[in-house]
What we know:
25% of the residues lie in helices and 15% in strands. With 472 residues, it is of the alpha/beta class. The two termini are 41 Å apart.
Amino acid sequence: MNNLVKKGKLLSAGIFLIPALHVFAGQKPNFILILTDDQGWTCSSQLMDNRVPNSKSDYYETPNIERLAAKGMRFSNGYAPCALCCPTRRSILFGQTPVRQGDARFKKNYHPEFNKVPTIPQFLKSIDSEYRTAHFGKWDLRAGIFPEDVGYDESDGNTGNKNGDVSSDKNTKFTALFLNNDPKRIETITDRAVNFIDRQVKSGRPFYLQVSHYATHVDIQTKEETYQKYFQKTKGEIHNNPGWAGMLENLDSGIGRILDAIERLEIADHTYLILMADNGGVEFIPPVKNKFDHPSIFPRHPNNYPLRGGKWTLYEGGIRVPFLAMGPGIQPGSQCDIPVVGWDLLPTFCDLAGNTEPLPGNLDGASLRPLLEKGNKGNFKREQGELVFHYFGKPHSAIRAGDYKLIRFWDLKKTELYNLKEDIGELNDLSGKYPEKVKEMEQLLMNYLEEVHAEVLYPSVSKENKSENKND
């Protein structure tokens, strides 16, 4: 038995017992995860859902994200684990929901001295000790945990937002513009990533690489030429900030350099690349205080339109994000509409790496391999059938089951219900119309929260110990 893989619930029946189909004899697959920051679902020039004509930007240009989509699959219902960066990064690393991990208790329970939950790099090394792993860019677990503590061979250290900032002044960070040749350290991070890929390919070792960009989190930084390009370009009705547009294009160029490296080194036939964001985009720049109000009260559409809300909220604009994958066996230019989420990545990578043991029962994800291979026709099933989200700041929880989504606001003792198939913008609250559906979904939500002993139900740790930073 793999030394880190212990008996537990099978997260997707049978899939861990089958060797990876697309890996050539003796060759383990490589994995690259590119995690962008504060990038909304519609914040690219790539259509995210071919059924929704305005599911792309009317101003931004991201030719390399388009290139990635043309080579692989986009998930129209791809979700970040949380509407804030820190819980999302923890969730991806350990394959668990943020509400299971908790916020106040995370720092102690997941510190290497106490933690018994393996991470993505640790799992991969338990499957094959030849794997080499690296994390470059924003780490931001806010728990005194370094990448090397949890299985990474190389990293930039225990970094956070400030490592990518020119200025973190609360009063100006949404309005100030900084022009430089390495905006948000995109060039530096990409240099490190490409160098790592080159070295691993030369050595013949399989690798896992996470590239966590500081972009497009504010402060706003971009190169002079990209700023001038968008300053002169006709503004869109939804998107119109030339500095932010330039920063996004600079980020897109960094993504392109990694795609170039995969092609140059001829490793596309055994390399998987996933691109996703840590949470949705900020609803307005600068943000508004009444972000939970109905969209009809605002004088213009928010940045994540046609989705409602943005970062800091569990409306779709805060958690539905760009989510794309390319690699062997994935149909180029395809779209999958089955909901997927960041905590699915750990079991997915383990499955594709050839794991043959059941994963621990305290994980929440399911391998996306059936979807990567067959899209909407893939035989995909979650043991935990619903997706449960939680935001710790202004506490509210959400659960998605099929087309329905319920949001529970704890302080307000208020519940909202939406049918996302008919109302992607979450404009029509159905809670009064379908009380039985509300009752059913509230019970599903409470069952899970009780199962994981959620902090919102059992607030046993004082507020001072909370690790979330309101200045994120």
